[in-house]
Amino acid sequence: MNRLVCYTRGPNKLGYVVNLDPAVMTIPYGVNIDIRDAVKHKEVMKQYNLGLNGGILTLLNLFATKFDEVVSEKRADQLDYVLVDTPGQIEIFTWSASGWIITEAFASTFPTVIAYVVDTPRSSSPVTFMSNMIYACSILYKT
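That's the GPN-loop GTPase sequence above. Prediction below.
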């Protein structure tokens, strides 16, 4: 993601970056919208007695109710790229109602491409590689 962000910040390019991972500790690049500014994952986990994945899913559901404000803030004619960093637990984003709402909000406002980025050093074993390929296929056929 860092390389993509660097590319969109190059000469004659206007990029916009959205972080939708509420549990990420640090981000090595600047973001324009950060879900962590709106909601705190540890507070939601404690309030609803949830684990990490349940907390992330609940936060995305809460954030999705206000996502029209995120999309209306920037319009396609003003930007070259909008990059969205989602939680590493891909099933939380791809198979939840909030994931669908957020994806559709982008697709209805901007020309949209969904890229599943694989961490290649971690995919050196055949099992991990095949797991990533299955995830990639599920995203391909889901979208």
